[in-house]
Amino acid sequence: MIRSFLALVPLFATCCASSLAAEPAAPPSLRTQLEELSAGFADKAPPAMREAFAQGIADVRALGLEASAKQVGDRAPDGVLLNAVEVPVEFSSLWADGPVVVSFYRGGWCPYCNLQLRALQASLESIEGAGAKLVAITPEQPQKAQETASKNSLAFQVLSDKDNQLAKALGIAFTLPEAIRPIYRERIGLAAYNGNDDDELPLAATFIIDRTGEIRWVYLESDYKQRAEPADIVAAVEAL
């Protein structure tokens, strides 16, 4: 019997090796995907456009919003958002039943935002399993936000922040610098997405707010090419 068992060992090992080889590779991190997208833009975009965007990032960073915005330990401000059918939603209602992850994105026209939203969707089960709700907030008009949610097959709520009112209360809204304003007006058509001519956007920011309304974790970044890593968000929720 021992001899028969030993004869099966190589076959068992081969089967295990085949199973391991067939194991799907882990998807690349959001950071890696964003870096690849940024590198592709750098390869294709005209030098003048690359310089304009680089200057725009520098100008936004110079505003100091990363330091002046709401931080860990601050109370989250209340505000009114709009859902896909333009029904008002109180911001404070989002954390009434427990912690909420609030991720701001600029618009469905932004390829970096779409990567971020898809990565959050891929991590939705982990975020909810850790005990939090996930909500995305955007200055896009409700119809545009719904189109973005549908395009990215999002199963979490996407809410519209009309005229960036909540973003302003959180201290993350800014007016587009002169260096890039024409690009957003003429090439992107930002006014049609946001429903105004304010030329304003929010930082790529993520907040975790607990059931008392206290901000417990923050990601603030002036460079729109960088976003909160979903694995870091999950870890922060688990640590609450």
UniProtKB/TrEMBL annotation:
Residues 1-21 form the signal peptide. One of its GO terms (cellular component) is cytoplasm. One of its GO terms (molecular function) is thioredoxin peroxidase activity. It catalyses: a hydroperoxide + [thioredoxin]-dithiol = an alcohol + [thioredoxin]-disulfide + H2O. One of its GO terms (biological process) is cell redox homeostasis. Belongs to the peroxiredoxin family. BCP/PrxQ subfamily. Thiol-specific peroxidase that catalyzes the reduction of hydrogen peroxide and organic hydroperoxides to water and alcohols, respectively. Plays a role in cell protection against oxidative stress by detoxifying peroxides and as sensor of hydrogen peroxide-mediated signaling events. This is thioredoxin-dependent peroxiredoxin. It comes from Botrimarina hoheduenensis.
